[in-house]
């Protein structure tokens, strides 16, 4: 089986499956998973036209050549990832003494994460973007995989429920940590003292669900398999919010 995923505007896959002595080709939107093949409304069809099959086979063979793709089995090490692994520090969370009461009277809004495929080197995937450049030394320091800074759309930031500046975040799993919104329209949502804290909370949940591995990018497929592509944020007061993901 060969899996090809191309970021939007076309979210499609090509499958090449060997069954007995026959090669079968399929193209469509379905993810190769229980949820992708049966749980969602998707469209995938068998490629039957001989010309289309030959073109597909040629394309896959080209795509998988060593000068186009990297075969992980041939890679002895990943220097940047190993460096980041060795330099990572454990994040310690504070537990909330009491869980806030959330009922139908508490106002909320949803922070969308649906644009993740267009943000492959920022937001939830800052690790894959540019590192931090030290002007004095000229050294570029890679970002930690857990670093996250969510860029919120302007329409959401104009909602009166949206936090302005510093606030304390209480989470649905009993954690509490300081957060902040900053930048134009307060569109940058982040944990206040360490960008890894919010990222650890979000990616930790994805890891616990089994849809994300360490050093993998977060994609729309990741969020689809998790079952949620937004963070719901309840306003308890101007300085206290409850986060649900």
Walk me through the structure.
With 245 residues, this protein is of the alpha+beta class. The protein has two domains: 1-76, no CATH class; 80-244, no CATH class. The chain has six helices and 13 strands. It has helices spanning 34-39, 50-63, 79-87, 154-157, 195-208, 220-226, and strands at 13-19, 22-28, 44-46, 94-95, 108-112, 132-133, 140-141, 150-151, 166-171, 175-182, 188-191, 230-237, 240-244. The strands form three sheets. Strands 4, 5, 8, 9, 10, 11, 12 and 13 form an eight-stranded mixed beta sheet that branches. It has a three-stranded antiparallel beta sheet with strand order 1-2-3, with no helix packed on it. A hairpin with a 6-residue loop joins β6 and β7 (140-141). The two termini are 33 Å apart.
List keywords for this structure.
245 residues; eight-stranded mixed sheet; 6 helices; 22% helix; 25% strand; globular; disordered N terminus
Q: What would you say about this model in short?
A:
The chain is α+β, with helices and mostly antiparallel strands.
Helix amount: 10-25%
Query: Strand share of the residues?
Result: 15-25%
Order of helices and strands: EEHEHHEEEEEHEEEHHEE
Total domain units:
2
Distance between the termini: 33 Å
Using only C-alpha atoms, the radius of gyration works out to: 21 Å
Report the strand count: 13
